[in-house]
Write a structure and sequence with these properties.
Strand order of the largest sheet: 1-6-5-4-2-3
Shape: elongated
Protein name: DUF4136 domain-containing protein
Largest sheet: 6 strands, mixed
Radius of gyration: 22 Å
CATH class of one domain: Alpha Beta
Distance between the termini: 44 Å
Strand content: 35-45%
Oligomer: single chain
Length: about 180
């Protein structure tokens, strides 16, 4: 009985550890991010958001989570004379992915290893359509007007309310990729 509970707990922890979002980042090779001390926000870019993120609650979630992360990295909000300008894009688009059928193995012979029982992926059996949500945050050098950093969080969006409620966590994970470490 203890073994069953242990396996159940391990399974729950493993499932919870798998984030439904993936995070990506890119930055300027010449970026000396420690030189930036102040920031301000540009208006969010008009994007193909399918109304998921096109509301004041979503905007507030994005700004609050990003502001907290930037302040933790020692940056100060300064609308009149910022070193960096931040902006975000919110996109939801229809896309598709290939679905594969599982292949259940059988007996066979490997390269000198003897008989084996195998599992693997079978052939493609179709395509599944789904909605992908993307939150992109960009940092622009205020003097040169060039993008010096970009972070993106991408994941499947099934429910508009959940997508908006997930924004603070998504933005926090995007901002973890910002090149300046948070101060303790």
């Amino acid at each position: 009985m203890k073994t069953k509970w242990f396996l159940l707990v391990v399974a729950v922890v493993m499932i919870a550890a798998c984030s439904p979002y993936k995070y990506y980042t890119t930055q300027s090779k010449n970026g000396a991010f420690s030189q930036y001390k102040t920031y301000a926000w540009l208006p969010g870019l008009d994007s193909l958001s399918k109304s998921y993120y096109n509301n004041s609650i979503a905007e507030e979630n994005i700004y609050e989570a990003a502001d907290a992360a930037l302040k933790a990295r020692g940056l100060t909000y300064d609308k009149s004379n910022p070193d960096l300008l931040f902006r975000y894009k919110a996109i939801v688009n229809n896309t598709s992915r290939t679905i594969y059928a599982p292949m259940y193995g059988g007996w066979g012979w490997g390269w000198g290893w003897g008989p084996y029982w195998g599992w693997g992926m079978g052939g493609a059996v179709g395509r599944e359509r789904y909605r992908a949500g993307h939150i992109i945050i960009e940092a622009i050098d205020a003097k040169t007007k060039k993008i010096v950093w970009q972070g993106r969080g991408t994941g499947e969006v099934r429910n508009p309310e959940k997508a908006v409620n997930d924004l603070p966590v998504v933005v926090q994970n995007i901002m973890k990729q910002y090149p300046v470490m948070a101060q303790n």
